[in-house]
Amino acid sequence: MHLVVELGKNRDLELRFRVLSNPIAQLWVERMNLRHAWPLDDPQRFYGFGSRESQHQQALDQLTQCVDIINAYQPIIRRTITDHCDQDLLNYLHWIFETYHGQLDCQNTQWWNQAPVEVQQALARLNISVHRYESLTLARPRLVCTWWGMPKTHTLDPELCQRWGQVGRQFGTVYLNYCEIGKTLWELARDHDDYVGQNMFLPFSHYSADFMVSFYDDTPQYLQEQQELIYQYWHQHRDFFQLHGVDSPQHWKAQQMQYKVAELVLDRTDVSSIIQDVSNHQWVENIYIQ
Question: What pLDDT score was predicted for residue 269?
């Protein structure tokens, strides 16, 4: 079984991935086979490809557009988008998204229920745009595919999480996409997030057809830095995490767990040429399981 992703508006580039035989991959395929009822959120959700200048302008334009649409409906965003957004502003925008969007299993805020669809979509894209801007400082090219409106109601069994989860990403690998309305422990620590706070700590639980393709390898140095951040943040908030069953920084819920579902079928050994091809075709035209 293969995942096929066709890139470019003329389907000029085909990426083929071998679906793995692990149980999480099989659960993901079940959701993929039901995704057709919902449109792809953003066919240009590529991060880390092209020049830094072009990536910055794209992220800034998207943030500004989303804020303008939301505030034209109701001025809930009180801070100004600048040419160079700092992490505190990005944390604030992420907090706006979480507050007005609502939780996956309780999406019933008055604002969300009353907002027109185009405003709801702008709020969802605001979250995407924040992550795009945050990616400017990371040399970690990737593709993310999510579907607008597809329910995020399925959760992974904790035993599966512990058995099949791993830390770190590898080139050409397809992973379940994190789809919680919140942040992992590492993301809270990385962002120094004063808006979300500890009550929005949400380890990986829900899954859908959503997936991410990594076009980089996490280095040992990066993984070590990640572990140090997790260790420090857990100890700073030891009482909170122990109260929520995370009794050490080594607990699987404290880790930045990744769940592999497919691997790229390589037709060449030159990784840089693959990255260049993807960079030249930053449009998802079609996705299917074969």
Answer: 77
The correct answer on CATH 2.60.40 for the domain covering 1-46+140-290 is: no
- The predicted-structure confidence for 92-137, as pLDDT tens digits, reads as follows 898 898 888 876 656 667 898 899 999 999 998 898 888 888 877 6
**Residue 22 CA neighbour count, 13 Å, CB half:** 16
The H-or-E segment that residue 30 falls in is helix 23-32
Give the pair of three-digit tokens for residue 181.
């309305």
150: its two tokens = 């597809």
pLDDT at 55: 85
> SS3 sequence, the chain?
CEEEEEECCCCCEEEEEEECCCHHHHHHHHHHCCHHHCCECCCCCEECCCCHHHHHHHHHHHHHHHHHHHHHHCCCCCCCCCCCCCHHHHHHHHHHHHHHHCECCECCCHHHHHCCHHHHHHHHHHHHHHHHHHHHHCCCCEEEECECCCCCCEECCHHHHHHHCEECCCCCEEEECCCCCCECHHHHHHHCCCCCCHHHECCCCEECCCEEEECCCCCHHHHHHHHHHHHHHHHHCHHHHHHCCCCCCCCHHHCCEECEEEEECCCCCCHHHHHHHHHCCCCEEEEEEC
pTM for this model (two decimals): 0.84
In the chain, where does the domain assigned CATH 2.40.100 lie?
1-46+140-290
